[in-house]
Amino acid sequence: MHDIKAIRDNPQAFDAGLARRGLAPLSASLLALDEQKRETMQKLQDAQSRRNALSKDIGMAMGKKDVALADKLKAEVAGLKDAIAAGEEQERMQTKALNDALAVIPNIPLAAVPDGKNEHDNVEVRQWGQKPHKNFEPQQHFDIGEALGLMDFEIASKLSGARFVVLKGALARLERALAQFMINLHTDEFGYSETYAPYMLRAEAMYGVGQLPKFEEDLFKTTSGHYLIPTAEASLTNLVREQVLDEAKLPIRMTAYSPCFRAEAGAAGRDTRGMIRQHQFSKVELVSITTPEQSDAEHERMTGCAEEVLKRLNLHYRTIVLCTGDMGFGSRKTYDIEVWLPGQNAYREISSCSQFGEFQARRMEARCKAADAKQARYVHTLNGSALAVGRTMVAVLENYQNDDGSVTIPDVLRPYMGGMTVIKRP
Fold first, then answer.
1. Among 277, 312, 348, 377, which one carries the catalytic annotation?
2. Is residue 391 annotated as a catalytic residue, yes or no?
3. Is 362 assigned a catalytic role?
4. Running along the chain, 426 residues long, what does each successive block of 10 average in pLDDT?
5. Residues in CB range of 9: below 8 A, 6 or more apart
6. Whole-model pTM above 0.90?
7. Is the dihedral of CA 224, 226, 227, 228 positive or negative?
8. Going by C-beta distance under 8 Å and a sequence separation of 6 or more, which residues neighbour residue 152?
9. Of 173, 385, 391, 398, which residue is the catalytic one?
């Protein structure tokens, strides 16, 4: 959510930021709504001041036993009462109209974000590791999993339709092993606090992190009116909503392993086979709550934590900074980590780490305050995948596949796999 006062103070900067996202200027229409609201508020204040003055005049008239004057003043007060009630309703409608308009406007990119139209304009910032050399034609993960008899899309389709999978035996355990490894790494070495939070959220919470109203078609809604989380970010970030935090205790770092549910409404025809894009998947999420001064450094730190998972798994990856045309709605800067998949002969996104500034905090009314400060200010929020568990399994299967169809288990995962070193067909 944008600050209308900041737009009022510098509309040119706001429109310039939108232009970098390829959007038309909006400051004029927003300020027109703001001006209507401010005019209504001023009329209300004038009416309330007049009512207060009349109340004193009525008291004086009654004291002088001037009943006629008192009755006249009371009639004016009654008229003001109706006008004030109508004005308050008008102000509520104008406030809603302004907030509704602000709620669908994306965040403004930081100056360091490269300009561009789409993913082709993203900028690579670094690579790690080497592409594995195979002396055979690498298979894609779904061919590997199905040949092992441990990945079943057909039965999942009978149960739930497209974009679901059933994992069995060693692959089901591998999914759990990956999640445990990631959670342990982030809590034991990187100082994140493991958190278990609801998987169903009210509309207010989804609005707070920017999922509503913009992305409602991508969410699953229950008959109770709750929404299934598309990522644990939605739950974790909302844990500080409507609070004033002690700045001395920031940053707050949280992590959670959770199922995620996405309708993938805009993904028709994309990744229809396999586990890359599913309606239900698991993810380990990182969330940080910081002061404005801490957020840039925390963004770099968080991205490094996500990258470390791939380093420990010895998976080749590259990190890119998204251009203005490819950034997410609420982000002001995003790093994507793309892992190499030999079966696809391509890099695929496995993590996205973003900083939001105060964009989400304004929607959640999440603030912080220093001990010596007179006023509270909005916190900054950040989140990142560390990692998407299903996509990490895809990367392990494709990078660690052998020519006989088996899959070698990465060293760091073997303690979680009961000492198993290779996955073979049962």
1. 277
2. yes
3. no
4. 96 97 97 96 89 81 79 79 89 96 97 96 98 95 97 97 97 98 98 98 97 95 97 98 98 98 79 90 98 98 98 98 97 98 97 98 97 96 97 98 97 97 94
5. none
6. yes
7. negative
8. 146, 165, 166, 167, 168
9. 391
**Catalytic residue from among 349, 377, 406, 414:** 349
Q: Which domain holds residue 66?
A: 4-103
Active site residue 242: no
From residue 41, give the alpha-carbon distance in Å to each of 29, 201, 254, 345, 390.
19, 34, 41, 61, 52
Q: Which residue has the tokens 């009116």?
A: 225
149 Ramachandran zone, left/alpha/beta (phi>0; psi -120 to 50): left
Could you report the per-residue pLDDT of 16-42, keeping only the tens digit for each?
Answer: 999 999 999 999 999 999 999 999 999
Residue 307 lies in a domain: yes
Q: Which amino acid is at 31?
A: L
Question: Could you tell me if 256 and 281 lie in one domain?
Answer: yes
Residues 278 and 401 in one domain: yes
How many structural domains compose the chain? Answer: 2
Based on the residue annotation, tell me whether 277 is a catalytic residue of this protein: yes
From the list 235, 352, 354, 385, the catalytic residue is 352
* pLDDT at residue 379, as a whole number: 98
Of 163, 173, 253, 262, catalytic: 262
| CATH number (domain holding residue 385) | 3.30.930.10
